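Support request from a user on the community tier.

User writes: "When I paste my structure tokens into the form, the page sometimes reloads and wipes my input. The last time it worked, I copied everything first. Here is what I submitted, just in case something in the input itself triggers the reload:"
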């Protein structure tokens, strides 16, 4: 449509005016990826700098005061120091008392992001790696092969006089960090002593890592006898696993066949097998999409499809972890749906697991935030369905490593068992070889085992169907009926699933049960847990019916024709209740950090990156705590608690959303700099 001449002229005048204004001000935004070290400033600021003018004296003073206040607030926010992270990775946090200790932001982390300055033994190890042909003296100095010393390092309390005060202050700070690090290590070692009066061993010797690794070739599963879990301390004290010692002895090698082959020939387990197939759907509140987008496009449909499927057949069951999503879905349903869902929950066909607001990250989240998200979700369940349906068992399949703090918090809330998944592949193989994939997780500070909690570690690569039925993913994928007709990109092993019919059910059933028996052989009981699900599964009624209908056809055949197998849809609590009394579990102390899912790809960067994001979380924690102490009501703080809980989710956001937010922030900062002139 042609526009009038007057309108075009008015727009031309506005454009010329805007262009002129832009030329005189130019608060330009430079893309982050292309920004040089010398930041491009608005022209007026550049001209002011050349004239010797620029900011006025009063403006400079105000700007300096504001900057000082902001930095002071950030430094006062509670977060983990590098030493506390190191102890957490080595064997779990020290105690609840230390967990509540006020934490501070490491100044290097705030100023440098990922660049954490190594101290003490860390610096020596780094030098040794960088200079393998050199040697070091007792003061950690690099020494030439000829014996000529290079520059001496500062040792003990003898601080050399440096050229300027700033360098002197930095050196004292490094020395204080070394002393604090040594004290933390001594505390960790003392807590592990048997109390028999032995003299304390050298700290450096205790923490030294042996570098001699023995390859694993022909490995056989350990022969163990069954015992019972029938009391508070009914555990095998002779089978004590300390993760700090275990990781020092592992070969950390990729055996032939890929990182996720077990490395030995897994033979089928004999005897009667009891199988619980547990349908689930993992719903991240923010990852590739935002929290809102996921709910509107996927999660809302998932819960509706599962609800309808459960009403069709009383043999079907389902578990759900993320209360933040269920709350949203619940608010949109009618009262009749509420009543039907209450019946499903009362009949234990729809089961909440863990009960937290989200499935939290376990490395960076502070204990206060973890407790808030735990209690917000569990309180939501209790208010609507009663305390009798509060989850007794935890389901944590996607966080990138696991802290004993979660085990402690779970036990504190009356829970009896946990399921975990993302553990270093070499650790999984070693525990599977020993049949230690189920254990009593003990706190390092707990002498009597009062806080022990039974923990089930999934043995394979992931929690999707190809990696949960048994050791051969090419076979397991054939029983992911959501992939029928090449949905979900089919099976990458080029062996697609097939609809179960009367003509093929016998062959299909025997193939599947063989995988179940091989998986059961990695555990000490004849009860086997088979999760069936993946990220955002059961999105359509067709997909949901395909899974339930085909599995039920296999169940009917197996239960009628295989006398040594019983199989059914189940829940997490049904599995844990069935496994009780079947064996005596070993004891495991420590944490499952640092996680690696393949080769040497360690998930450790986020331990020290994003300091400002972590500071924001700590700020909200402190505000919430202060509000609770000043008399704010539970209802007044509910939305803020839920915001804090959502922030503890283990995933980050998609890059394009992060980039968009960073660009917006950058534009705001450019405008602020201009108006300070």
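"...and here is what came back when it finally went through:"
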């Amino acid at each position: 449509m042609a526009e009038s001449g007057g309108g075009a002229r008015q727009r031309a005048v506005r454009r010329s005016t805007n262009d002129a204004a832009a030329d005189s001000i130019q608060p330009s935004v430079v893309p982050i990826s292309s920004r040089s070290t010398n930041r491009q400033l608005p022209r007026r600021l550049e001209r002011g700098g050349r004239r010797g003018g620029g900011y006025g004296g009063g403006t400079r003073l105000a700007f300096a005061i504001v900057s000082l206040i902001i930095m002071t607030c950030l430094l006062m926010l509670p977060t983990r120091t590098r030493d506390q992270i190191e102890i957490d990775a080595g064997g779990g946090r020290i105690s609840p008392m230390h967990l509540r200790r006020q934490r501070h932001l490491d100044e290097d982390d705030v100023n440098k992001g990922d660049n954490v300055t190594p101290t003490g033994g860390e610096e020596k190890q780094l030098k040794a790696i960088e200079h393998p042909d050199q040697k070091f003296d007792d003061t950690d100095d690099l020494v030439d092969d000829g014996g000529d010393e290079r520059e001496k390092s500062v040792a003990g309390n003898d601080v050399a006089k440096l050229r300027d005060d700033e360098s002197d202050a930095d050196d004292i700070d490094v020395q204080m960090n070394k002393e604090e690090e040594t004290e933390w290590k001594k505390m960790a070692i003392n807590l592990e002593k048997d109390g028999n009066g032995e003299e304390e061993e050298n700290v450096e010797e205790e923490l030294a890592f042996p570098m001699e690794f023995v390859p694993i070739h022909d490995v056989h599963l350990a022969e163990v006898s069954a015992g019972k879990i029938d009391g508070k301390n009914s555990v095998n004290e002779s089978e004590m696993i300390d993760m700090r010692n275990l990781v020092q002895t592992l070969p950390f090698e990729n055996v032939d066949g890929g990182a996720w082959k077990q490395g030995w020939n897994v033979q089928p387990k004999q005897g009667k097998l009891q199988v619980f197939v547990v349908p689930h759907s993992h719903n991240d509140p923010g990852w590739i999409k935002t929290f809102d987008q996921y709910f509107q496009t996927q999660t809302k449909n998932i819960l509706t499809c599962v609800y309808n499927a459960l009403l069709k057949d009383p043999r079907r069951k389902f578990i759900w972890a993320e209360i933040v999503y269920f709350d949203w879905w619940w608010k949109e349903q009618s009262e009749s749906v509420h009543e039907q869902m209450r019946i499903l929950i009362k009949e234990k066909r729809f089961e909440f697991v863990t009960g937290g607001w989200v499935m939290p990250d376990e490395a960076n989240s502070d204990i206060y935030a973890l407790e808030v998200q735990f209690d917000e979700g569990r309180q939501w369940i209790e208010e609507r369905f009663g305390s009798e349906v509060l989850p007794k068992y935890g389901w944590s399949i996607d966080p990138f490593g696991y802290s004993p703090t979660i085990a402690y918090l779970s036990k504190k809330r009356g829970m009896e068992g946990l399921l975990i998944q993302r553990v270093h592949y070499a650790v999984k193989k070693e525990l599977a070889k020993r049949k230690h994939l189920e254990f009593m997780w003990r706190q390092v500070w707990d002498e009597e085992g009062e806080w022990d909690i039974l923990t089930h570690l999934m043995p394979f690569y992931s929690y999707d169907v190809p990696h949960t039925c048994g050791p051969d993913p090419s076979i397991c994928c054939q029983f992911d009926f959501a992939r029928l007709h090449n949905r979900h990109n089919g099976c990458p092993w080029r062996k697609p699933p097939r609809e179960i019919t009367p003509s093929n059910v016998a062959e299909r059933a025997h193939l599947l049960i063989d995988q179940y028996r091989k998986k059961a052989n990695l555990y000490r009981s004849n009860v086997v847990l088979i999760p069936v699900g993946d990220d955002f599964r059961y999105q359509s009624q067709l997909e949901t019916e395909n899974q339930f209908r085909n599995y039920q056809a296999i169940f009917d055949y197996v239960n009628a024709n295989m006398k040594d197998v019983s199989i059914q849809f189940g829940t997490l609590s049904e599995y844990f209740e069935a496994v009780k009394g079947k064996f005596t579990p070993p004891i495991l102390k420590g944490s499952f950090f640092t996680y690696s899912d393949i080769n040497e790809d360690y998930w450790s960067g986020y331990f020290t990156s994003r300091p400002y994001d972590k500071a924001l979380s700590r700020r909200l924690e402190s505000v919430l705590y202060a509000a609770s102490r000043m008399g704010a009501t539970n209802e007044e703080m509910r939305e803020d608690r839920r915001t804090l809980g959502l922030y503890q989710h283990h995933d980050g956001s998609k890059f394009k959303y992060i980039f968009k937010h960073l660009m917006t922030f950058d534009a705001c900062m450019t405008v602020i700099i201009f108006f300070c002139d």
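Agent notes: The reload is a front-end session timeout and is unrelated to the input. Residues 1-56, 77-174, 191-233 have pLDDT under 50 and may be disordered. The first strand starts at residue 135 and ends at 136. Escalated to web team.
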